[in-house]
Structures
1.
Amino acid sequence: AQTVTQSQPEMSVQEAETVTLSCTYDTSENNYYLFWYKQPPSRQMILVIRQEAYKQQNATENRFSVNFQKAAKSFSLKISDSQLGDTAMYFCAFMSLDGNKLVFGAGTILRVKS
Amino acid sequence: AAGVIQSPRHLIKEKRETATLKCYPIPRHDTVYWYQQGPGQDPQFLISFYEKMQSDKGSIPDRFSAQQFSDYHSELNMSSLELGDSALYFCASSDRTSGGAYNEQFFGPGTRLTVL
């Protein structure tokens, strides 16, 4: 079974600065998908970014980018130019290639301060 | 663009009562997933359906049952409710048939169930 670990329960960052959220996972599969989801106070689950394990290039979506280290089974999220609206819970998630259930980490609460 | 619809958005029940949560997937999506998120916890996968057949099963209690109907909407039936069932229940949908190897799950807003 796959497991996802987020070792940072809470993080804080000043507005306009950069922050990195950590995630490690465990799987015996070679191909899979990894995601970062954002859950603001509204509790809506919002997809931030995804990474296919067979792609070596790190995914980027505007201010959000990942550092995917397949051998180390590490998948960190970097948020540049942090904005107050980035304040939320962030979940790292794993999905097998057969595309069924998502396995989530425990989440990291990110607070952006003005 | 149309999103996943869940009803009701909020539900309050007493212990030992039953509850039915409904999920209407994005049009033309053929797969539905149910997740349970307890207070301060990450979402846990309960069950999924593809083309009206159960596709995968997670940590769903025997007191819960679910199905997907011919119009692809899904219902999660919960009986003998316990205090610990209080949670946010998410439904997500995807287009597995057309999505290829990757079928993104689109989440609904969730149903907040409170058991008193």
Note: The CA atoms of residues 4 and 25 of chain B lie 5 Å apart.
2.
Amino acid sequence: GQNIDQPTEMTATEGAIVQINCTYQTSGFNGLFWYQQHAGEAPTFLSYNVLDGLEEKGRFSSFLSRSKGYSYLLLKELQMKDSASYLCAVTSWGNTPLVFGKGTRLSVIA
Amino acid sequence: GAVVSQHPSRVICKSGTSVKIECRSLDFQATTMFWYRQFPKQSLMLMATSNEGSKATYEQGVEKDKFLINHASLTLSTLTVTSAHPEDSSFYICSARQGTQPQHFGDGTRLSIL
């Protein structure tokens, strides 16, 4: 089976940097995804990591350590519109569907 | 690119009604489509996986006779909630994938059964 853990809620200040952690256990790991989901809306794709290291995309970066079963999403220069849930999801060999963590609800305050 | 269209976005209907939700990949061929359900403040829970032209694979606990899935073409999958009851009220989200590319999600359908 698969198990994905991430904090339930986080609060950060506008303009700051926040790191959202995700740990996972899965057999046959084949990639980790981060999605953003605003309340009442569907998730939107943010990033994909399959090799160790940091992937940077604008204000968002995602890091993966396969040996530690660990990833984080780094959001820089936070804006109010970044208030959303951030979902960590993993897929396994055999092109399996994404299995999602429960999501981290991020609140950006002024 | 990678646009997935889901329709309708909102449905309100009486108990006992059957509701059909469509999911279309607009600019790519979706070899696999997925249907998720999300209750308030909870994570997305996978209901079923469907590959074009074959029967859907349902997750444990999901009634295949209640949630009928058809994936007749590489761009269209439908989910029919048969004889819906209030406990079926939820946010239903489809996603589509081409080969090993990331899954892209439709906008979701908010289903409310009175």
Note: The longest strand of chain A covers residues 29-37.
